[in-house]
């Protein structure tokens, strides 16, 4: 059955629970938002945290390989995870082509028209970019990391699928940060082979590393970035830099256009992100527009206050 998205607890108690009792197993399909963000009793919100961040486990094979990745990285000291969303399908779907050649733009457009279930076809890439609705390019990320104060010797793990444009698009980022690694570099082909054709399993490895990192930086919103953000809040507000893409695009254009010096650019980037480091914040609620509000799993505020910890123990 396709459950009604953004439903409250009453829907599940009155409609879904009887079906579960009757059939034992329910297959939910065509859904990515099963429960509403707000308006749920606190004890159930806390149960969501227990499930999302403690009860759920990956397979033993994924857990073992994930732990090996984390151990390898930690032996080198502190490390940053950059969730670099720059895969071909993501760029095609979003229509974001800033920094792409004409040939690449045509290729991405053809791909978008090839999938009939992708409803939006004609997309103004620059307009979306100026609204902060596009991922930052690898070249832009290199400038932003430097402006934020990350030194050249910072160990950076890239959590992503295959980067569109390959090594060519990563060249500027690698030049700025030579200690750039990915799971494909840290693990042997034999170790990765069982997961190679399973993108969600490869993402699970990146997820484990993202949770364990000293700093997590997503270049774009998305389900994984949001749930990592929430997991890191739940784990003690571990540092997560939430990039203000609208402001950054404006600053990058001014800097690259010559109207801002490097010092001015760097100072402005730091100021813009002073309060975007994963600190405690109230979850933004917009009644009637759940897709536009802050997602529960990105900011499970009911579970992360000092008084919440005692209630969590009661839930357990």
What would you note in describing this structure?
The chain is mainly alpha-helical. It has a domain at about 60-275: Rossmann fold (3-Layer(aba) Sandwich). The chain is built from 15 helices and four strands. The protein has helices at about 10-25, 40-55, 60-75, 90-95, 100-115, 125-130, 140-150, 165-175, 185, 190, 200-210, 225-235, 245-255, 260-270, 305-315; strands at about 80-85, 155-160, 180, 215-220. The chain has a four-stranded parallel β-sheet. Strand 2, helix 8 (about 165-175) and strand 3 (about 180) form a beta-alpha-beta unit. Helix 2 (about 40-55) crosses helix 15 (about 305-315). The longest helix has 15 residues, at about 10-25. The protein is globular and about 65 Å long. The model is unreliable at about 310-315 (pLDDT under 50). It is found in: Membrane. Keywords: Carbohydrate metabolism, Fucose metabolism, Glycoprotein, Glycosyltransferase, Membrane, Signal-anchor, Transferase, Transmembrane, Transmembrane helix. It comes from Aegilops tauschii subsp. strangulata (Goatgrass). Pathway: Glycan metabolism. This is O-fucosyltransferase family protein.
Tell me the distance between the termini.
Answer: 30 Å
Order of helices and strands: HHHEHHHHEHEHHHEHHHH
Gyration radius over CA:
21 Å
Major sheet: order of its strands? 3-2-1-4
Number of strands: 4
Q: What is the SS-derived class?
A: mainly alpha
Broad shape: globular
CATH topology name of the domain at 59-273, in short, is: Rossmann fold
Contiguous helical run count: 15
What is the arithmetic mean of pLDDT? 92
Low-confidence stretches: 309-316
- Taken as a percent bin, the fraction of beta residues is under 5%
CATH class of the domain at 59-273: Alpha Beta
Helix content: 40-55%
Report the biggest beta sheet as strand number plus sense, adding barrel if it closes.
4 strands, parallel
CATH architecture descriptor of the domain at 59-273: 3-Layer(aba) Sandwich
């Amino acid at each position: 059955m396709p459950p009604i998205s953004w439903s409250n607890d009453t829907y599940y108690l009155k409609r879904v629970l009887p079906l579960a009792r009757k059939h034992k197993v329910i297959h939910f399909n065509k859904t990515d938002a099963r429960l509403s963000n707000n308006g749920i009793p606190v004890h159930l919100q806390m149960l969501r945290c227990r499930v999302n961040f403690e009860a759920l486990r990956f397979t033993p094979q994924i857990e073992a390989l994930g732990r090996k990745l984390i151990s390898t990285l930690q032996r080198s000291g502190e490390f940053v995870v950059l969730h670099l969303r720059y895969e071909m399908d993501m760029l095609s779907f979003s229509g974001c082509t800033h920094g792409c050649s004409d040939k690449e733009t045509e290729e991405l457009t053809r791909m978008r028209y090839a999938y009939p279930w992708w409803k939006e076809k004609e997309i103004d890439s620059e307009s979306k970019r100026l609204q902060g609705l596009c991922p930052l390019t690898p070249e832009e990320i290199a400038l932003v990391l430097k402006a934020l104060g990350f030194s050249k010797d910072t160990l950076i793990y890239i959590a992503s699928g295959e980067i569109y444009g390959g090594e060519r698009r990563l060249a500027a980022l690698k030049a700025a940060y030579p200690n750039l690694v990915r799971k494909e570099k840290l693990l042997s082909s034999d170790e990765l082979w069982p997961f190679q054709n399973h993108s969600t399993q490869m993402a699970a490895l990146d997820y484990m590393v993202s949770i364990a990192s000293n700093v997590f930086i997503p270049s774009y919103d998305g389900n994984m970035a949001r749930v990592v953000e929430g997991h890191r809040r739940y784990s003690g507000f571990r540092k997560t830099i939430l990039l203000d893409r609208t402001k950054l695009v404006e600053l990058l254009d001014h800097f690259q256009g010559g109207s801002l010096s490097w010092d001015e650019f760097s100072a402005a980037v730091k100021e813009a992100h002073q309060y975007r480091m994963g600190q405690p914040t109230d979850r933004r609620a917009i009644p009637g527009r759940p897709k536009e509000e802050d997602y529960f799993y990105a900011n499970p505020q009911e579970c992360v206050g000092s008084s919440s910890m005692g209630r969590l123990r009661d839930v357990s």
